[in-house]
Specification:
Elements (H helix, E strand, L loop, with lengths): L9 E7 L6 E9 L6 H5 L4 E5 L6 E4 L7 E5 L5 H7 L1 H21 L9 H12 L9 H18 L2 H12 L2
Parallel strand pairs: 3-5
Antiparallel strand pairs: 1-2, 4-5
Length: 171
């Protein structure tokens, strides 16, 4: 399950590979990465909001003066809580939202200053996938986005989660 409400936590295990091969020497769970500042520690790339959207279930807004916003229709009961806790909604919304954000920033990169939110998104995408292709060839950039979104989806097994949820709902 994807937890959008808190930072990523890590598990570390130290294993002896000298005298007693495979012996666990130490382990630690729920470790948080540390940044240089408090703001960096709490920073996220995407703001999630609930607001009226008529018949749209979600959309991405970029004219926010800062980070892109994932808007979930406020007609959905506990919209933000549903997105945080419902794997079905996560699997249907997050890959498309990720794709839209990357496309927006790649096609509007002249508008962004160095070190801004666009650069953070591209760095995040490169961490998931391969390095961004050079230049502005739409085919190469679209192919790169496809790979990044596919790897994002694979890392959270989004299709398997969706199928499991759908199979569990069928009697």
């Amino acid at each position: 399950q994807l937890d959008l409400s808190s930072p990523t936590l890590f598990r570390i295990r130290i294993v002896d590979e000298t005298e007693h091969l495979g012996r666990l020497i130490a382990s630690a769970d729920r470790l948080k990465p540390e940044g240089d500042s408090e703001e960096e520690k709490r920073s996220s790339l995407l703001v999630v909001r609930s607001r009226p959207l008529n018949q749209q279930t979600w959309k991405i807004e970029f004219d926010t003066g800062g980070k892109p916003e994932l808007c979930i229709n406020s007609r959905i009961p506990d919209a933000i809580g549903q997105l945080k806790n419902n794997p079905l909604l996560q699997s249907l919304i997050l890959p498309g939202a990720f794709r839209q954000v990357l496309m927006f920033f790649l096609w509007n990169e002249d508008d962004e200053e160095e070190g801004g939110i666009a650069e953070e998104w591209i760095t995040f995408a490169e961490h998931i996938g391969d390095e961004r292709p050079p230049g502005r060839d739409p085919k190469q950039l679209t192919d790169w986005i496809d790979v990044v979104v596919a790897r994002f989806s694979e890392s959270f097994e989004l299709c398997d989660i969706l199928l499991h949820k759908l199979e569990g709902g069928v009697s």
